[in-house]
Design brief:
Beta-lactamase; D-tyrosyl-trna(Tyr) Deacylase, Chain: A; hydrolase; EC 3.4.16.4; serine-type D-Ala-D-Ala carboxypeptidase activity; carboxypeptidase
Length: 493
């Protein structure tokens, strides 16, 4: 999802909005100063009154935040078109933007080692953070850890595990990868099969386009009546997440329509279909009929014949856009799909276990600290997930590394404090971090987390991770986490 300048959040993936970074001309990767400028400009946008509300919510998310999702709008991926000549000029330098906001910019003295203990230690003692808490802060420009408390203690991350999922997917597949949904026809054109590739964002408009393309191919062969099948063999294993049937996530299927939602919502908890593939196939059948192709009986599950040929293809938004949407809105369905796409790329079974192994293997290739880490799913709904603050902060620092431009959508997808996604309802008062903090939230009963980036008063981009377990008051825990991030934006005292 994009940062809110002139309300781009309502654009569909690949639509005219796009991310703030994209519209500022930041392409192929943000260096430290460019990303600083992007975050700072977000602060200017807030001053202009820009407001954005969105978000699928973590299991256990507080009711007040769910109310922010009342005016839901489908979120879109950013533009990722190389060399787009219509893009605006590059971002201004960070010092200029920060000065415009009335913030003092200081050059860090050579060799200086910031000591954040006096700032963060008292805030971490807040009882609202439960009986276990951990924190890590890294200077992304140098890779140096500036602060650590319980850094290597494995803890339940809730939805902040999506940072690991998206980093692994981008590393394995690249930001330009698109998930295909295809239609294959038998040699005699009498049997048509809708083949799911694992795109959870497939919508009715995409199916209509597939139906039109299929109808053209069939009519060219003088065929107007077919048998319709649908193929979900791209995924294996149990379809339900270990938490069971839940409004926060649909049964996993390689073929589904609008994340299996049974209402008109595009985000947030919603009643989910128990047969997402069948629903998608029946919708496709009706659209084929509209296009002049009769299907007769209800579509049946079945694989396309080896001798069949592709007659229509739909490609999802680029992986970069899916990653941004998954992080901004804490979209569980997309996150689990990305874990399975990573499994497919690694030659693993496309199921929960295969996704877990594939994501872990990608993180290992990136030489990230994995001692005590257990990646149990892609979304963070599974309480068996265990990560460390060191890993989460390290993932964000790696995404900021100029040597890994393929990971940049992880940074551009983080919600902006007071602006977008799961942070749109936070930092909305006199909080110093508004517009400067970008972070992934995490909320389960008794668990609260926040991991992201912040621009401090020196213009440095810091990566941070704060984890808390044993919390009893979600709103108070979230406020305590927000104070920690805001303290980083204010710098050392």
């Amino acid at each position: 999802m994009a940062e809110p300048v002139e309300r781009p959040s309502i654009d569909p993936p690949g639509g005219p909005g796009g991310s703030l970074a994209g519209r500022l001309g930041v392409r192929g990767g943000l260096n430290n100063w460019q990303f600083t400028a992007v975050s700072a400009v977000a602060g200017l946008a807030l001053a202009a009154g820009a407001v954005l509300a969105a978000g699928p919510w973590d299991s256990g998310q507080r009711k007040a935040e769910q109310d922010w999702a009342a005016a839901r709008a489908r979120t879109g991926g950013a533009h990722h078109v190389p060399g787009d000549p219509s893009g605006p000029a590059p971002a201004p330098s960070a010092p200029a933007v920060l000065a415009a906001l009335g913030t003092t910019v200081q050059d860090a003295p050579a060799g200086a080692t910031p000591d954040l203990r006096a700032v963060l230690d008292p805030l971490l003692k807040n009882d609202a953070l439960g009986d276990r808490r951990a924190a890590v802060v890294i200077d992304t420009a140098t890779g140096r850890r500036l602060y650590g408390k319980g850094a290597d203690a494995p803890m339940t991350p809730a939805s902040t595990v999506k940072i690991a999922t998206t980093v692994a997917a981008l590393s394995a597949l690249g930001p330009d990868h698109r998930i295909p949904t295809t239609v294959r026809a038998s040699a005699d054109l009498r049997t048509v099969t809708l083949v799911g590739g694992g795109d959870p964002t497939l919508d009715k408009a995409a199916l209509r386009t597939l139906a039109a393309g299929t109808a053209r191919a069939l009519k060219a062969g003088k065929v107007t009546s077919v048998r319709l099948r649908y193929d979900t063999s791209g995924y294996t294993g149990p379809s339900h997440h270990p938490i069971g049937p839940n409004e926060n996530i649909a049964p996993m299927s390689a073929l589904m329509l609008n994340e299996g939602r049974q209402d008109d919502s595009s985000s947030g908890p919603a009643p989910r279909s128990e047969d997402p593939a069948g629903d998608a196939a029946r919708t496709f059948a009706a659209l084929l009929d509209d296009a002049g192709i009769t299907t007769g009986a209800d579509p049946a599950a079945g694989r396309a014949a080896k001798t069949s040929r592709t007659v229509a293809t739909h490609l999802s938004a680029p992986l970069s856009g899916l990653v941004e949407r998954a992080l901004t809105n804490s979209d569980n369905d997309i996150a689990e799909a990305l874990a399975r796409q990573t499994a497919v790329a690694a030659g693993e079974p496309a199921d929960f276990d295969g996704g877990r192994r594939a994501v872990t293997a990608q993180l290992k290739k990136l030489r990230l600290p994995l001692t005590g880490v257990n990646i149990a799913d892609g979304s963070g709904l599974n309480r068996k997930d265990k990560v460390t603050a060191a890993l989460l902060a390290g993932l964000l620092a790696r995404a900021a590394d100029p040597g890994h431009p393929e990971l940049r959508p992880v940074l551009t997808g983080l919600p902006v404090a007071g602006f977008s996604g799961t942070l749109s309802g936070r930092y909305t008062t006199k909080a110093g971090g508004t517009g400067f903090i970008r972070a992934k939230t995490g909320t389960l009963t008794g668990v609260n987390s926040l991991a992201g980036t912040v621009v401090d008063t020196r213009g440095r981009l810091l990566a941070f991770a704060f984890l808390a377990s044993g919390t009893t008051a979600p709103s108070e825990a979230q406020a305590a986490l927000d104070k920690l991030a805001t303290a980083l934006a204010a710098g050392e005292r």
